[in-house]
């Protein structure tokens, strides 16, 4: 069943809202809570769980992208129409901004509240571990590329039915376990944009990297999967619709 454009964009807005609110909310509100903080592992699980639950609840409507880099990668991989890409990206970014605003209202709702880094992404002095620009760039490109390979493989027609969302959610959890000390983990330009607008000024100054690197990584990952891993029949089926949509 083909859903209307409005329903698809609504699903992407809600799904990205949930990803940012759940993932960044766990980092801002629960990660360092005195005596009971969930730490890096808890935040990593939170991000994975938001994608897992969103994929099963909203994936049947919009495909469950919740990430501009994923949408771009799916176009390159022949799984998504290029004509729909601008609307998806706008919906995803607006969902992320809305989530960051709600989180900001909650986080500042007590006396003497300080939001600190507000779960924003960064490098250099804004990296949790002090990693430089090159480290951040390589981390974001490589992990987003792997994320797209997992997404394309887990949702291929020959893959185990019904388990795609689980594989994707667990992959995002692992990505956060690896890269949180480096960049605070983006692999998602919308996730980076929402908190940056309410966080420290340096987050906005460095935001460009968290658009460029994830999108570059998504394109690389999609090309690797399509050229090296996809079955010839699947590639042939996907090529015509993708090319037609791009023209």
Summarize the structure.
The chain has 247 residues and is mostly helical. It has helices at residues 5-30, 39-62, 68-76, 85-107, 133-154, 164-183, 189-196, 201-205, 209-229, 232-246.
Structural commentary:
Helices cover 70% and strands 0% of the residues. The protein has 247 residues and is mostly helical. The longest helix has 26 residues.
Question: What characteristics describe this protein?
Answer:
mainly alpha; globular; disordered C terminus; 10 helices; 247 residues
Question: Which value, in Å, is the CA radius of gyration?
Answer: 17 Å
Oligomer: single chain
Relative helix content: over 70%
Enumerate how many helices there are, as a single number.
10
| Gross morphology | globular
Q: Mean of the pLDDT scores? A: 92
The poorly predicted ranges are 235-247
Strand residue content: under 5%
- What are the secondary-structure elements, in order, as H or E? HHHHHHHHHH
Q: From the helix content, strand content and strand pairing, which structural class follows?
A: mainly alpha
N→C terminal distance: 25 Å
**Sheet with the most strands, sense and barrel status:** none
* Overall strand count: 0
């Amino acid at each position: 069943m083909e859903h209307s454009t409005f329903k698809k964009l609504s699903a992407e807005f809600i799904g990205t809202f949930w990803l940012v609110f759940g993932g960044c909310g766990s980092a801002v509100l629960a990660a360092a809570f005195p005596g009971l903080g969930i730490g890096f592992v808890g935040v990593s699980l939170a991000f994975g769980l938001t994608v897992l639950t969103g994929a099963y609840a909203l994936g049947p409507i919009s495909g469950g992208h919740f990430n501009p880099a994923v949408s771009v990668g799916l176009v390159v991989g022949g799984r998504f129409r290029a004509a729909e890409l601008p609307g998806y990206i706008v919906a995803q970014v607006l969902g992320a901004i809305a989530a960051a605003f709600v989180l900001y209202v909650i986080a500042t709702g007590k006396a003497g509240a300080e939001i600190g880094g507000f779960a924003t992404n960064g490098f250099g002095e804004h990296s949790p571990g002090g990693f430089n620009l090159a480290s951040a760039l390589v981390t974001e490109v490589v992990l987003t590329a792997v994320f797209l390979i997992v997404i394309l493989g887990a949702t291929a027609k020959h893959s185990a039915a019904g388990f795609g969302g689980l594989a994707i959610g667990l992959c995002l959890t692992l990505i956060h376990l690896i890269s949180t000390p480096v960049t605070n983990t983006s692999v998602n330009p919308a996730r980076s944009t929402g908190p940056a607008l309410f966080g420290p000024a340096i987050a906005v100054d460095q935001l460009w990297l968290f658009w460029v690197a994830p999108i570059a990584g998504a394109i690389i990952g999609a090309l690797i999967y399509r050229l090296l891993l996809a079955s010839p029949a699947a590639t042939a089926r996907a090529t015509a619709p993708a090319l037609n949509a791009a023209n």
